[in-house]
Amino acid sequence: MEPYDALPSADPFSASTRAFQCLALALTIPEAGELSHHDLEAFLDVAGRDLLRQLFQDHLDLRAIREEAAAAMDSAKVTGADGWPRQHREPGHVRKLACLFGTVTVARLAWRNKGLTNVYPADAALSLPAHRHSMGLRRLAVLEAARSSFDQAGAAIERRCGKVLGKRQAGQLVAAAAVDIDVFYQRKIPLPATAATTLVISVDGKGIVMRPEALRPATLKAHQRKQPALRTRLAPGEKPHRKRMATLAAVYDTDPAPRRPHDVIAPPDGRSERREKRPGPKAKAKWLTGSVIHPPEHTIAAAFDQALARDPEHLRSWVVLVDGARHQLDLIQAEATRREIDLHILIDFVHVTEYVWRAAHCFHPAGTPAAESWVATHLTSILHGQADRVAAEITTQADHAQLTGTKREGVNACVRYLNSHIDHLRYDTALAAGWPIATGVIEGACRHLIADRLDITGARWGLTGAEALLKLRALIDNGDFDTYWAYHLRREHERLYPAPDQHRYQLTA
After folding, report:
1. Residues with Cβ < 8 Å from 25, sequence gap 6 or more?
2. In terms of domains, do 193 and 295 share one?
């Protein structure tokens, strides 16, 4: 649709008034009476958006007129953030602003002085962004890009706002929108909880397909020297070396929910109907974070910062749930030692279950009741805190069965896993205290934050874009986006339009 006529008039909103009258008239003609409801919706969607754009434009023009009139009546000078005055004013300076309704023109006065940069008081009054796209459009771009691909986000924005944003620009806006997230969480005070509430930290990692220049040096070197064994596909066990590991962490509260081993694993002969199964603990006040740029210790430290903000006096029980990766365990223990915090570290029970099932298939065919009964018996013993005895029994049974070679690989892997993590398999203590024993929260976060968006087919990421989207998706999942966006707007205004004495003040989240 062509822009509405905007001839000079005593009424600053005359163009908007004429646009509305034209729109109302278009709905009264006989042809409009023959339109279906969906045709009317489509027409009003475009025409209504252009009417809003004209209202926005008329208001900006009115502000420009008022600024010139006020400057003509007042001989005061304008002082820039550098402390130097600008005494000369020059009208006719314009800039474009792409907003939710289309593109408008902002006219304002420039205050000048020889050898100094121009100062535009109207820009600060409007809190205009540094570049063309409005903060409302940026907010929409972030929300759309965080939930779908940039192509889909661009299409959604075009349907709502017209052609105001390109794919590359959307990526730049998303990266710029995430710059204050770390500081925001450093200053945000979590809600308090009672000393009886368990504090849980969980850490995991997941790979993201990256562009070659964004890979870590060792991965890039392996990617460059890779010689595929097969021409058309990867051979078994072969890796393309295209991923960079992102580390994710979750911190959440949970009320203790004591359980028995048979509440987790049904005994071989089935559960008794006389005793109801006790429910496990439920996560609440969940907080997620992650990074693909920083090393794992950075994310783990951020998780400890969040946990410490929730329990600064160390009055609560701190439980850490991991999948057994030795590197993560060492980093967590080092961070706890540095902060002098007593932790209860538990290995994810689901991972233990997988190893026991693998060992079961060395003795019994897969999918048989005998294998299920064997697994239930040993997992029940592990839940009773007897992982060392289970490891010894499995070893003895394998010796008596004279298992060797590939037939014993599952047994050896299970025994090694149990023995190497024996100190972190105290499920008897965890169940009695009502703690969680599985890493479902952080594994679900890995699927939601990374797999659902960063791992879509054909996506290859640069460091800046992947880091920004990972942090923004975590922010949205935490339920903090609206609060953060208000904080981000204040920070952005402070960066673009600093006052001479701004260093005296600090923003809080």
Report:
1. none
2. yes
Domain identity same for 44 and 134: yes
| Strand pairing class (318-322; 344-347) | parallel
Q: What is the pLDDT of residues 393-434, one digit of tens each?
A: 999 999 999 998 988 999 999 999 999 999 999 999 999 999
Which tens digits make up the pLDDT trace of 226-244?
A: 666 665 665 565 556 678 9
Q: Which helix (H) or strand (E) holds 109?
A: strand 102-112
Per-residue burial over 271-281, b = 16 or more CB atoms within 10 Å of its CB, e = otherwise: eeeeeeeeebb
CA distance 343 to 256: 16
pLDDT digits (tens, 9 = 90+) for 141-192: 999 999 999 999 999 999 999 889 888 899 999 999 999 999 999 999 898 8
**Sheet containing 344-347: which strands, arranged edge to edge?**
284-291, 243-254, 198-209, 318-322, 344-347
From start to end of 18-87, where are the E strands?
78-79, 85-86
Orientation angle between helical segments 481-496 and 135-147, nearest 10 degrees: 140
State the CB neighbour count (10 A cutoff) for residue 156. 17
Q: What sign has the CA pseudo-torsion 301, 307, 309, 312? A: negative
Q: How far apart are CA 137 and CA 91, in angstroms?
A: 28
* Domain extent for 123: 14-170+491-504
Residue 53 CA to residue 200 CA, distance in Å, equals 49
